[in-house]
Specification:
The structure holds two protein chains of two kinds. Chain A is built from three helices and eleven strands. Chain A is of the alpha+beta class. In chain A, strand 1 and strand 2 form a beta hairpin. The N terminus of chain A is likely disordered. By secondary structure, chain B is α+β, with helices and mostly antiparallel strands. In chain B, helix 1 runs antiparallel to helix 2 and helix 1 crosses helix 14. In chain B, about 30% of the residues are buried. The C terminus of chain B is likely disordered. Classes of the chains: A alpha+beta, B alpha+beta. Chains A and B meet through strand 4, strand 5 and helix 3 of A and helix 12, strand 23 and strand 24 of B.
Chain lengths: ~170, ~675
Amino acid sequence: MTDELLASDEASSTGSFAAEQTHDVLAFIIADEAYSFPLESIREILKHKPITPVPRAPQGVLGILSVRGTVTTIVDLRAMLRVHAQPATRHSRVLLVDQGDEIIGVLVDRVLQVVRLAPDEVEGTAMVSGDLSDYVAGIGRPRSGRGREAVDLLILLDPTAILRRSHGA
Amino acid sequence: MADPHEEFLAEVQEIIEALSRDLLLLDQAQKDGNQQPDLVNEVFRGVHTLKGIAGMFGYQRLGALAHSLEDLLDDLRLGRVQLSQEVLDVLFEGVEGFQRLVGEGETPKMDLDAFAEAIEGVSASDSEPLDGREYDLEDAVLSVLTEYEEHRLRTNAAAGLGLFRLRVKFGLSSIDSDLESLKSRSADKAEIITYLPSADAAGDDSIELDVLLASSLGTGDLVSLFEVDASALRAVPFRAPPPPAPGPVVPVPVPAPVKTRDTMPPVAPEPSLVQQPEGISLRGVANSVRVDIRKLDHLMNVVGELAIVRASVTRLTERLRNEEETRRLASDLHRVGRTFERHLEELQTGILGVRMVPLGQLFDRLARIVRQFAREHDKEVHFSVTGSETEIDKLIVEELSDPMMHLIRNAIDHGIESPKVRELAGKDPIGTLALNAYQKGNHVVIEVDDDGAGMNERRLLETAGRKGLIAADSDSDMTREAILDLIFLPGFSTRSSITDVSGRGVGMDVVKTNINRLGGVIDVQSEYGFGTKFVITLPVTLAIINALILEVDGRPYAMPLASIQEAIVLDPSLLRTVEGREVITLRGQTLPLCRLAELFGSSRPRPAREYVVVCSAGARRLGFVVDALEGQRDIVIKALGPTLRDVRGFAGATDLGEQRVALVLDAPGLLEEVLRPAELPRLGATP
């Protein structure tokens, strides 16, 4: 059953989760839930810096930050994930995520660790409610006992879909 | 490594620009009745190169077009086709075609078949021989000449020029420079047809050449021109007309030139283009480097970062200065910091300099269009250009192309009258269209000036009234400038019939918007019956601008100084409301206000003390109400990312250092946004 779902999902998604490969993802926390981006899409992890808000920007855009001279757009996934905003803490980080035509900063509450997922540790998106699925690429279920903070359920996010989302808003 | 495809596009662009220049020189030469065989050759070579690289990069249609043009040019240089305005039309159209084909994707933008027919129309039917006169050269020489060289011989013979053989001896080590000097000596006095190896064997380290040259000068003049021994120069007589009698051939002495006409008049403004065609491309390649502008942007970023580092060093130095035991160290550090700053400024100026290109690049392209449109509309136009050496940011030049083209089309279509009308008005039947560029402080000014019909205020007012752009009775209180500015309103066009030239659905409002987007301003002056002048003022560069840093809702913003007229403290007692909009009276004029905090969606209470930054774009003014003024400084504008590009009101952002990033306000855009809704329904047709 799981394999079938995975196969059908694969055909329609960006293909970043091929069945026979292992996947390295960077796991992080937003509003007490664990999410991840593919490790190869992560360019940098920044400490939280003051973000300049941009009036009249699309929903979900927090503002801009200068990263070594390049003006970078920072988004807050909370608005898309429909969770309430929380003030930044000393654990807050900005992930610079390469989304193809733009490197975007994503504000997260806490960065966990890199998780290597075996093919049988990835599930398709049928579990998640329909509205989420266009930027959720799958669910990771790492077998417990690895890393400092054990994570047993990870939502795998598709970075390119998140960019489309903030354009459309 | 640069992308080879981009390299290809850049090279094609260079070739097209060179072709345009050469064709314009040819056009001038043709009108003056001169021959420019070297120029025809230059064009032929350009087209040939284009054909080659187009093939390499798979641009088949481009290659095909180059190929057909190449045939025509070959006929031209071999004298099978005579250069005429009709032939030039086809050549110009061909170059235009190159431009279009390079930009064409899946949808063809050019009908190659129709163009092939146009070429067919002017191509050689069958070569008619020139007049029968020939030089008396021995068969051994004739047999080694190329078809082109034979053609040049025939042409010169027909023109009655003398032919000479000059024996020269060059050292093998210095042959290149010797040949150069020979060429520059002959310059416009003699045409070198070919070099023949001398019959006499030369020594090991030298070579003897027989130079075949045609000239209107006599033997004596040539001997002194080339500073050679009289024995080295021999005149080649004309061959007697063939059939008369098979009797003994009487050598005809070299006749004195039939008419003393310069074959190469000193018309060429760029002598290097006309002579020594071989050297040009090589020199160009050796001394310049093509750089992707993004690399320069990156360097500019680094300079911006260094400036921020420099500011931190200054702060640290201040702290050291306050401590008794580190005061000496602080003043040393201060000196080092100053040196650092000086070099940094040099670096910044250097990088900005690299981005600069002369406006001539753009003007050359426009000259082609002037010629084309003047011919299409049967207008006689003298196109004059000054200041083409004026430099401006490469990105600005790119964006200027469309608006300038539109202004020029307008000037020819609406401005300059037909020769007949001009004569009736007592004007020179040839109209003048002048492009003048010059630098003025931190700005570049470009004027587009025609001596055509000028604008009729009455008609402008009528049109604007009819189209509902102004209230019917508003003409009495409008200044002349305000009336002329009507042409920049969207939906304004005085011509009722849409011509294919100016009426392509874009009006002066688009020209204005495009120029505003570059941080520039366009003004118009016109005198009815005497002509129209557009004056465009642009920043020299977009990379670094002078800006006023101001504060709205606790956050810094940057307003380009170029848009600001003045900044004043807001006196609340002067506030009035007109149609729901706050205004103040500033020096007798009503100034509409815009509270930036409210435009940006803030609901904070207004601070006790506020400021008004008065901005203008063209003739319109608006006062932005802000919370505080921080002072002016040079800023490096960074583009916002794709996600934020559609957000209105901002031209970019800039890093102020100390982790502060300010949005750069787009004054012309904001003015447009704030003022437009109020202007349109002014006719009184309130919904």
